[in-house]
Write a structure and sequence with these properties.
heterodimer, A: alpha+beta, four-stranded mixed sheet, four-stranded antiparallel sheet, 8 strands, B: 105 residues, mainly alpha, 53% helix, transmembrane (chain B), membrane (chain B), Signal peptidase complex subunit 1 (chain B), endoplasmic reticulum (chain B), Spc1/SPCS1 (chain B)
């Protein structure tokens, strides 16, 4: 501590200690604030507007090495108020609508059909009407018709500091129809 | 003009370390509380940064207050040498031993 550089070194080391202590407290405060939010506070209303299945090819259409596949096209409505998820440690929300279903060969199948990134509290009220799915649904068996699925809204709470959390809400049943030509 | 290479005394070292601990700890607590109250992480980081700058200004340069307790050394002791002191035979003592004896007893 008797020279300038030693004092600078001591100060920097202690500054980093304080900085990480504060950031640790911030990281803990985020989940605590979210824990106080009632479970039903996030009003999520998800419904299916239309669904159709058509034959197509994933990837390049004229690439005949990939087989013809049943592609599910979904249109849905979404009302979600996620402003309660916003606190000082929320950097952004990553929303995604997932279609979940079971097949005889696989117990859990999940298809993301739509996603969005919300970066401010003002944008956290989401209203979508007759929204076309961003991504077509397809199964690795190349067959979709007759599969009963359930749509739900999932979201990741991306914090500035700390652990990312995943939550879900909403439910909308959906059955893929026969493929139309 | 402040001589940045100046060395501060022991009391000054204790003081400057205490100041930097106090300022940084205080700014850390205040930054969390204010940021939490305003729900603004930006405020937290700016208060921390301000605390860091204030702490560096207070405790890094060798301010005169850190040099106000200079170490007082013992007065210089002349060691008698053979040339200017006549030592009687039988009780001849040389080297540092007479000095140590004078300091201890």
């Amino acid at each position: 501590m008797h020279t300038l550089s030693q004092r600078a070194n001591t100060l920097f080391a202690f500054f980093v200690t304080v900085l990480f202590s504060v950031l640790g407290a911030v990281a803990i405060s985020g989940p605590l604030l979210l824990w106080r939010v009632p479970k039903d506070a996030n009003a999520v209303d998800l419904s299916v507007e239309a669904v159709s299945v058509k034959m197509g090819r994933l990837g390049y259409y004229y690439d005949y090495s990939s087989p013809a596949t049943e592609l599910g096209l979904i249109q849905f409505n979404l009302d979600a108020d996620l402003t309660t998820l916003w606190n000082w440690n929320t950097k952004q929300l990553f929303l995604y609508v997932v279609a979940e279903y079971e097949t005889p060969s696989h117990n859990v199948n999940q298809i993301v059909i739509w996603d969005d990134i919300i970066t401010s509290k003002e944008d956290a009220i989401v209203t979508l009407r007759n929204k076309k799915a961003e991504y077509v649904a397809s199964d690795m068996s190349h067959k979709l018709a007759g599969i009963r699925t359930n749509l739900s809204l999932h979201w990741n709470i991306v914090p500035h500091v700390g652990l990312l959390m995943t939550q879900r809400a909403g439910s909308a049943p959906l059955t893929f129809p026969r493929a139309s030509q | 003009m402040l001589d940045l290479d100046a060395k501060i005394d022991f009391e000054g070292q204790r003081l400057s370390e205490r100041y930097l601990h106090l300022i940084l700890t205080f700014s850390g607590i205040v930054s969390f509380l204010v940021g939490f109250a305003l729900q603004s992480l930006q405020t937290t980081l700016y208060i921390l940064l301000a605390g860091g700058i204030i702490a560096s200004l207070v405790s890094i340069p060798p301010w005169p207050m850190y040099r106000s307790h200079p170490v007082k050394y013992l007065p210089k002791i002349e060691i008698p040498t053979d040339t200017d002191v006549e030592v009687k035979e039988g009780q001849k003592e040389t080297g540092v031993w007479p000095v140590v004896k004078r300091l201890l007893f």
